[in-house]
Amino acid sequence: MRLIAENLGGERGGEAVFSGIGFALETGQALVVTGPNGSGKSTLLRVVAALLPKAAGRLLLEGGGDEFPSIASACHYLGHQNAMKTALSVAENLRFWREFHGEGRLGVEEALETVGLGGIGHLPFGYLSTGQRRRAAIAKLLVSHRPLWLLDEPTAGLDKASEGRFARLMSGHCAEGGMIVAATHLPLGLEGARELQMRVGH
Amino acid sequence: MWSLLARDIRLNIRAGGGALTGVIFFLAVIATIPFGVGPDLKLLARIGPAILWIGALLACLLGLDRLFQADREDGALDLLVLGHDRHMLALTVLVKCVAHWAGSVLPLVVAAPLLGLFMNMEPVAIGATALTLLVGTPAITFIGAVGAAVAVALPRGGLLISVLVLPLTIPVLIFGVSASYGATANPDPFLQPFLILAALTLFLAVLGPVAAALALRHGTD
């Protein structure tokens, strides 16, 4: 599977945020997008996920087959918000996304164990701390399978131990033939990841 | 899709849902009318079906702004839009509308017969009004979904949605009220306006979600 972006441009409210971005990502590779505030990291991720229309350029996913015909169908998008309901329990939230997105390799309980939240699935999501909420949102990536992970500041609010655990999860995902595009300020601890430096007004 | 229906109904029922707010608003509107109109029982019985319909229509509009906004605020809307290859977005919207109707509007239909007593309505008129509300209110939700999708990005979109949606719901109101009157006033027909009301609901069940899905696809930022 190959994700290709050529000469990509993005805009917000009619203002060009970035232009001329290009990269090609093969199966098992990760791309870390860095740059100062306002350089268009989040916009780039939303353009790749087709949540925003692209202003210029080409984006395509090769070799997705029938199961993943488009980038939108092949990706997990983890944005700034966690997409979980505070009134429902953690397990109810994850069970919903598992049923909506399709079953993955891990069940809800196993996924919570993997991110270090074992035994708290019955608590309402609103009771969790910021870091725990982020970890529950990361568990959402595990309960259903998608080859491409689009991560926007995935480690915001995580402690050191959780960061390490998440780095191992990402390496495992790449080793199983996944792809990752992550926008971040913090080092993710991903070995062998390529870097895309974005500049303001690029 | 069943999981989305179950989740939305559960969210509606749990704390923070709009089910009770709508019923209390409906009660407040209907309870005020006899004080304003005066104790003329014949007049109250005559305007009863129309007042029940107007009250239910306004109560329906009350909770519409939360239909997509709650999902937008916590980021779930992005994921629902992204899933359009597996679950057609119009179908997702339809399921959300059905859940919203079952959670917030169905309680109004259930409360309507009781409030009909406030208006000194006959049992037949109460039954007919409840039946037309049951058949007609889904149409209001489907029209409202379009307004809610267009105004999803506005922080205080509630009033705007009501103003956008209200003119479009007038046909539903007209046929709902005329069917309710048809059940009691003898020369007026019941079946024809009732069937047109049912047709409106079915037609809008297709058009509303498709239009709302289109607005949501182009409204993400």
Could you describe the 3D structure shown?
The complex is a heterodimer of chains A (202) and B (221). Helices cover 30% and strands 26% of the residues of chain A. With 202 residues, chain A is an alpha/beta fold. Chain A has one domain (2-197): Rossmann fold, CATH 3.40.50. Chain A has a 5-stranded parallel β-sheet with strand order 5-6-7-3-8, sandwiched between helices. In chain A, strands 2-1-4 form a 3-stranded antiparallel β-sheet, with helices on one face. In chain A, helix 3 packs parallel to helix 5. The longest helix of chain A has 16 residues, at 160-175. The radius of gyration of chain A is 17 Å and the shape is globular. The two termini of chain A are 28 Å apart. The relative contact order of chain A is 0.22. The model of chain A has no long low-confidence stretch (mean pLDDT 88). By secondary structure, chain B is mainly alpha-helical. Chain B has one domain (2-219). Chain B contains 9 helices and no strands. Chain B has helices at residues 2-13, 19-37, 41-62, 66-73, 76-82, 89-118, 123-150, 158-182, 191-219. Chain B is elongated. The two termini of chain B are 25 Å apart. The model of chain B has no long low-confidence stretch (mean pLDDT 90). Chains A and B meet through helix 3 of A and helix 1 and helix 5 of B.
Q: Notable features of this structure?
A:
heterodimer; A: 202 residues; alpha/beta; Rossmann fold; five-stranded parallel β-sheet; three-stranded antiparallel β-sheet; 8 strands; 26% strand; B: 221 residues; mainly alpha; 81% helix; elongated
